[in-house]
Amino acid sequence: MYLGGLFAAASSEERKYWGFLVFMKVLNEAPMEVASQIFTQNFMRCLMNQLAVEDRYLHKIAVKAAKSIQARTSKEPDFAYPALCGLMGPRGAVNFDQITKVKIVEKIVADVSHTAINQLMPFFEGLIVHSEADDKAAASRRQLIANFLQTIIKSFMTSAKEDDSDELDSAVQVIILTLAKYTYFSSDTAKPPISDATRELFRNKIMASLNIIISNQKRPSDIAYKVVQKIRDMEETGDSGKSIIDMSDTISESVHSAFKTLKKINKKSKQEGEQHDQAAQGLKLLYSLTILQVYNGDADAVSMLDELKMCYDKFLSHKKSNDEESGEASDALVEILLSFASKPSHLFRKMSEQVFGAFADKLTPTGLQSLLAVSPVLYM
User: Is residue 286 located within the same domain as residue 263?
Assistant: First the structure.
C-alpha cells in the first residue's frame, strides 16, 4: 500500500504528518479488509518512534492515530484481530505499550469480545510459542501475553450477559486451555522451551482466572469441570505434547477413579431438582478444583479425593446410608473446605464459600464446632 511510502525513512516530517492523516482517514472510513492492511512496516516504525518521545514533532498526531485504532476496535470488536496483529506482530512489538509509553494495546485487549476470541487465540498462542528471543526476553514476552489473557477473561466475566453464556463459556475455556497446554505439557514447538518459572506463572494465571469465573458466574462448576476434563483428554491423547505431570501409579489410580465419579456428578447436576442440583454443582466444583490441585502437585489434594468420594456416596449416589455415615461425610466435607479456605488463595476461599452454601443444611454439630474453631483465624 502507498501509505508505507509516506513513512519511508527519507520522508520529510510534513509527508509523515500527511501519512498519519491518510492513516486515520482509511482507519475510520474504510471497510475492515482495507483498514486491516494499513499497518505497514514503515508506518509502525514511525508510530512507535513518535509515540515514545513526547517532544518529537509528530508525537501529538501519533497519539491521535493510536487512539483512532482503539476507537475502531471499540466500535467494531472484530477489528481487534487486525489491530493487535499490526501493533504486536512482526511489524510492531509484543511490548508495544512499554516501548511507546501508552496503553493502547491494554485498552484494546480489555475490550475484546468473546466472539472474536477464536480468531485471536492462534495469534496469542503464536506469540507464546515463537518467541524468537533469548530465555529472559521470552519469559518476559510470555508473561505479558498471560497478563493479557487474564485481562480478557476478567473483561468477559464482568460484562457478560445472560443470553451469551454458552459462547462466553466456550471463549473462556479456549483461553484457559491454551495456558494449560503450556503448563502441563511439554512442547517441541516452543522456542526457546517454556521454562519452569513460566509454567508456574501460567499455572497461577489459570487459578486466578478460575477465581474470576467463580466470583462472577452463576454456575462456575460447569467451566471448571470442562477445563479439567479437557486437560485429562489432552493427557490421554498426547495431542498437546507429553504430560509433565509426575504421578505415581497410586495417584494415577486415584485421579482415574475421581474422574469417573466426577462424570457421574456432572450427569446428576443436569437431571436433579433444584436442591439436589445445588449440591451436585457444589461437589462438581470441589472435585474439579481438587483434581486440578493434584495436577499442580499438591500432595494433600490426593487424600482429599478419597474423602470426596465418601461425600458423593452419602449425599448424591442415592445409596442408603445411616445417620452416622452421613455425619462422617459431612464432617469430612467441612475439613476439606477448611483446608481449602486456609490456603493463601482467593480462589479457594471463594470456592469454599460457594460449596459450603450448597451443603450448609447437612452440617453436623461436630462440623460446626470445627468451623467455629478456625473461623477467627481464617478471617482475621
Answer: yes
190 phi/psi in degrees, rounded to 5: -70, 125
Residue 4: which of 58, 36, 42, 45 has the closest Cα? 42
Structural domains in the chain (count): 3
- Of 113, 80, 84, the C-alpha closest to 97 is 84
Report the DSSP beta bridge partners of residue 185: 243
The domain in which residue 173 lies consists of: 112-239
d(CA 228, CA 177) in angstroms, rounded, equals 9
- Out of 130-134, 217-221, 324-328, pick the least confident: 324-328
User: Is the separation of the CB atoms in 228 and 291 below 8 Å?
Assistant: yes
Residues in CB range of 113: below 8 A, 6 or more apart = 77, 78, 80
Contact between 187 and 239 (Cβ < 8 Å): no
Q: What CA–CA distance (Å, rounded) separates 2 from 70?
A: 23
DSSP 36: T
> Which amino acid, residue 35?
A
Nearest to 49 by CA among 100, 101, 91: 100
| DSSP H or E run through 173 | helix 165-181
Select from 62, 80, 111 the last residue of a domain: 111
pTM, to two decimals: 0.87
Q: Are residues 48 and 153 in the same domain?
A: no
**23 closest CA partner among 8, 45, 39, 9:** 39
Which of 239, 274, 289 lies at the terminal end of a domain, its last residue? 239
User: Which tens digits make up the pLDDT trace of 95-107?
Assistant: 999 999 999 999 9
Interatomic CA distance for residues 352 and 364, integer angstroms: 17
What's the angle, vertex CA 80, arms to CA 193 and CA 100, rounded to 5? 70
